[in-house]
Each structure stands twice: as structure tokens, then as C-alpha cells.
Write a structure and sequence with these properties.
alpha/beta; 22% strand; 5-stranded mixed beta sheet; 248 residues; 8 helices; 10 strands
């Protein structure tokens, strides 16, 4: 990346996968120019390495966070509040909550729904996914496009809107705004952990690089069976493409 200006990394949807997170943080550390990391929610849930992920994230001082729907659901269960998760998802969230080290609860409670930053003359909005007027996450739009995004964010002053939740890459550019989703760091059909690096030039020019970091996911995937993680069969099929079958 260009040396002048500001360089940031964007990670999202770690989903309790510390193996993938370690690989991405190592990649970021090799780029000596990255000044800050923005983590866009769903730190926990789906994956089983809850405490390992939170320990790793909190060992760093250069990360800003927004909360995701899984973080929110697990925290509500811990607080005895109603959550939208039902069935196997609810049982899974209860399992994650039961294994969460209590020392991380204040941190999870402190994470906001969105963050606004001004970087080199550009206004940034960081959030897990699009929010309604009540600050509730909208359902995933499986056919996103720039026109719909511009319409939704027409009253926002943000020039750049970064989000996650939908586990595919979004990279839309209109005359008014740039929309970016680097895809899920912790859930992939291949042993790859994606994230994005962004350079914001002194004059406001923005360059984006999408990066996929290879990592060894064998132990992580096999541990779903060893730990008898609730909803493991659904998770391994839908979120990891049954890669574990290659290791059995």
C-alpha cells in the first residue's frame, strides 16, 4: 500500500474462530503501515473458541469494535433478557454463554452498535449491519446493490460505510458513497480467513485490498464433534461447507 496517508484494517464476523483470527492478525502485523483495526461484530457465536478470541482481541490496543447480533444474543441470555434466537440457535447461544469467562462480560456490554470516524477528510460509519430507526439489525438483503444502499443511507453523512453480517464480499461505489464488507473472517468454505486493508490518502483517495489468509482449520473443525457443540451438524454444513469430512 501507499506509504502516505492512513492505513486501516477491517475485520468482521470472527465467530469464535481463534485460529482464523490469529492468522489475520499475523498478516496485519506484517504490514507495518496498518495503524488501526476496526472489528465489525459477531466476535463470538457459531465457533466454539469464545474465550480464546476475546483474549486475543483484548490483548491489542489498536482495535475499535461494534457489536453484532450473536454478541448481542449471548449477552442477553447472560443478562436474563429476551433474545430473538430460537430452537437450535437458542441452545447454541446458551452453550456459548455458559462457557464465556465472566471477565469478558463488561467488555461485551461496552461495545456500541456503531462507530463514526473522520479519517483524512472522509466520514466513516462502522457497524455490523444496516440498522432501522430503533437501532435493530435488518434482515440480510441477499441481492444487495448500490442503488438500494444509496437509498437506505441517503440521509447519512458518511462517505464510507463498512459492515459485515452477510458472509460475502460487498464492494459498491456510487458518486456519493463507498460500501464495504470484507466477508466473514471465521466462517468460510475454504481454510481461508478474509479481511480488508484500506488506504485513505492525504487527499481523501481510498484504495481497498481484499485479502484471504490461509490457515490450518483442522483442529478447529474437528473440535465441533469433540465438544459436542449444539447445532454442530448445521454449522459445519452451512458455515464451513463440511470441510471437516476431509479430516475424518
Amino acid at each position: 500500500m501507499i506509504s502516505t496517508g492512513t492505513n486501516i484494517a477491517i475485520i468482521t464476523d470472527i465467530h469464535g474462530n481463534s485460529s482464523a483470527l490469529k492468522a489475520v492478525l499475523n498478516s496485519i502485523d506484517k504490514n507495518k503501515q496498518i495503524e488501526h483495526i476496526y472489528c465489525l461484530g459477531d466476535l463470538i457465536g457459531i465457533g466454539h473458541e469464545t474465550n480464546e478470541v476475546l483474549e486475543l482481541l483484548l490483548s491489542r490496543k489498536e482495535i475499535s469494535f461494534v457489536t453484532g447480533n450473536h454478541d448481542e444474543a449471548v449477552l442477553k441470555i447472560i443478562e436474563g433478557k429476551e433474545t430473538n434466537s430460537v430452537g437450535e440457535e437458542r441452545v447454541h447461544h446458551e452453550w456459548v454463554a455458559s462457557r464465556l469467562d465472566e471477565k469478558f462480560i463488561p467488555f461485551l456490554k461496552s461495545i456500541p452498535k456503531k462507530q463514526c470516524e473522520r479519517i483524512n477528510g472522509k466520514d466513516f460509519l462502522f457497524l455490523h449491519y444496516h440498522l432501522n430507526e430503533k437501532d435493530e439489525f435488518l434482515s440480510i438483503d441477499n441481492e444487495p446493490n448500490v442503488n438500494k444502499l444509496d437509498k437506505f443511507y441517503e440521509t447519512s453523512k458518511a462517505d464510507v460505510i463498512c459492515f459485515g453480517h452477510h458472509h460475502i464480499v460487498h464492494h459498491f461505489k456510487s458518486k456519493e458513497k463507498l460500501y464495504l464488507n470484507p466477508s466473514s473472517l471465521g466462517c468460510s468454505y475454504k481454510p481461508l480467513a478474509p479481511y480488508a486493508e484500506m488506504h485513505i490518502g492525504d487527499s481523501g483517495q481510498i484504495d481497498v485490498a481484499f485479502i484471504e489468509v490461509p490457515y490450518d482449520n483442522k483442529e478447529f473443525l474437528l473440535s465441533y464433534q469433540k465438544l459436542n457443540v449444539p447445532a454442530k451438524d448445521f454449522i459445519l454444513k452451512i458455515f464451513h461447507g463440511e470441510q471437516h469430512l476431509d479430516y475424518i
